[in-house]
Amino acid sequence: MQIIAHRGASGEYPENTLLAFRQALAQGADAIELDVFAVEGELIVIHDPHLQRTTNGSGSIYQHSLAQLATIDAGAGEPIPLLWQVLQLVQGRCWLNIELKGADTLDPLLKLLQRAERELNYDLNSLLISSFNHKLLAAVKAARPELKTGALTASLPTDNCAFAAQLQAYSVHCDAGFIDEALVADAKARQLQLYVYTVDEADDLARLKALGVDGVFTNYPARSRKLLT
């Protein structure tokens, strides 16, 4: 079962910062998950559209210029990173799950991936683009059919994973509270990867491993790995 560092090693370090991502790599995470919004055509890495929960700033990210956002402390003196900086850091050392949060993230993402291919020789096969916005995922597949996409859901659909198959997704990302044997079996039958969020406790890790899910998003990658052994 793969260990996916949720917003980096966010249980111990400020979430969605380069510090948290470096620590996730140091702790041997199989993947890193992060969230992006677009500001001035650039993808910034932050989970909320408002600043106050995770930074020393306040108000909406859209009320600030990119230059202003760069001066805000996202924890431990860390700035809000650009997705470009994360790509430079990771460089294929693990796979990367980019969750699109804003509806205007598609064009900036496509431009950035072209730049990553050109300047970093980045292997786009090591990326997974996910979102709760399934229309956005369909647009990603229409623009770049070779990209892997992950369909997020906060519910247990009556038709299990059919929605993800219709999107030609690579994976389904589900809340830990909704996972059951039927959902896992349906994902496998449709050849979909099944990743579960957010899982930090030993009993949940054991249960999900027994069910046969493919990976878990966790705030504590090293600890969760140890609990699984």
Automatic annotation (TrEMBL):
A Pfam family the protein falls into: GDPD
Tell me which residues make up the GP-PDE domain: 1-228
Q: Which SUPFAM superfamilies match?
A: PLC-like phosphodiesterases
Q: Which biological processes are named by the entry's GO terms?
A: lipid metabolic process
Q: Which domain of life is it from?
A: Bacteria
UniProt cross-references to PANTHER family, sorted A to Z? GLYCEROPHOSPHODIESTER PHOSPHODIESTERASE, CYTOPLASMIC, GLYCEROPHOSPHORYL DIESTER PHOSPHODIESTERASE
Protein name (database record): Glycerophosphoryl diester phosphodiesterase
| Source species of the chain | Alishewanella aestuarii B11
